[in-house]
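Lecture notes, unit on protein representations.

Consider one protein chain, 116 amino acids long.
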Amino acid sequence: MSVTNDLIEINELLELLGYSDLRSVRKFCMENKIPLFNLGKKTYTINNFLDMVIANEFSKNYSNADKILQAINDDDKAALARLIDAPTEQEVNTKFKKSKSNSSAAEKLLSKLNEA
């Protein structure tokens, strides 16, 4: 059992949470009872604490939070899409409009390439 695989560094939390200041991350952790600890020159927390906060947020927003989290853990994208009512198919426009005509230099290059 390796605990180091379960650690998340505070700078990763900064990016994950979208903050620009480490003080905001520390405040978030304090408010959500996520313990932080120093190991050498870096500050870490354990992923499981963050997972619990995420699970609690899902529980507030979705009645089927346990199934959603299981689909995420299983990497089952189809089940996840069904559970959160996400569109699974999307039409893609394959026709592109020509925005403007090519310059004369571009036209010459294209004609040379077509001749070759």
